[in-house]
Every structure is written in structure tokens, then in C-alpha cells.
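Progress note, sequence design subtask.
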């Protein structure tokens, strides 16, 4: 890589890393809201829908940035870098907790 390409690579990698951190932070906020909603905090339950939307938007932005980075620099995740089964299980558990709150007549009922 030339000096300019190295600088571009570093800047693009920093942008992707920043988006990953924001996405992870939003996920932690969502997790906290789920816990508080399960404990009966009605305000947290109302915020869940908004936070899920934020998380979805951030995920789309992150994927777009990662794709652009990979297209330009030919790098990306390698096989095995992301455990998609673990990600699916984690999301499934969170959704199950939300569904369980609804069906038990909790704060969603």
C-alpha cells in the first residue's frame, strides 16, 4: 500500500471500528432496557421499540461501511471471525424475553 492508501485504510478502519463500538453500545442499552422492562419498568418497555429501531439502523450502517471497506481494501471478516450461531442465539434469547413478558401479562399486557 502507498502512503495515501495506508492513510485511507487507517481512516476507513477507524470509521468501521467506531460504528462497531456504537452498535455494541446500543446493544448494551437494549439489553439493559429489556432487563428493566422485565422488572416492571413501563418506561423502559416503551423505549424498547425505539432502541430496536436504532439498533437496526446502526446495523445497516455498519454493514454498509464494512462492505465499502472490503470493496476498497479487499479485507473483511474471515471465515470463523463471527460466530453467527451465537449471534442468532443471543438475539433469539432477547426476543424470547420480550415475548415472555407479553404473554405473561407483564408490562406489555
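Output:
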Amino acid at each position: 500500500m502507498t502512503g495515501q492508501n495506508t492513510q485511507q485504510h487507517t481512516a476507513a478502519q477507524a470509521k468501521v471500528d467506531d460504528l462497531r463500538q456504537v452498535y455494541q453500545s446500543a446493544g448494551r442499552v437494549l439489553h439493559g432496557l429489556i432487563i428493566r422492562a422485565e422488572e416492571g419498568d413501563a418506561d423502559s418497555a416503551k423505549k424498547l421499540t425505539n432502541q430496536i429501531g436504532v439498533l437496526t439502523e446502526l446495523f445497516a450502517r455498519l454493514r454498509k461501511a464494512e462492505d465499502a471497506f472490503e470493496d476498497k481494501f479487499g479485507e473483511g471478516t474471515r471465515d470463523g471471525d463471527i460466530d453467527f450461531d451465537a449471534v442468532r442465539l443471543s438475539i433469539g434469547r432477547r426476543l424470547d424475553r420480550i415475548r415472555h413478558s407479553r404473554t405473561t401479562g407483564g408490562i406489555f399486557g
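The first helix runs from residue 3 to 38. Work on this subtask will continue into the next period as scheduled.
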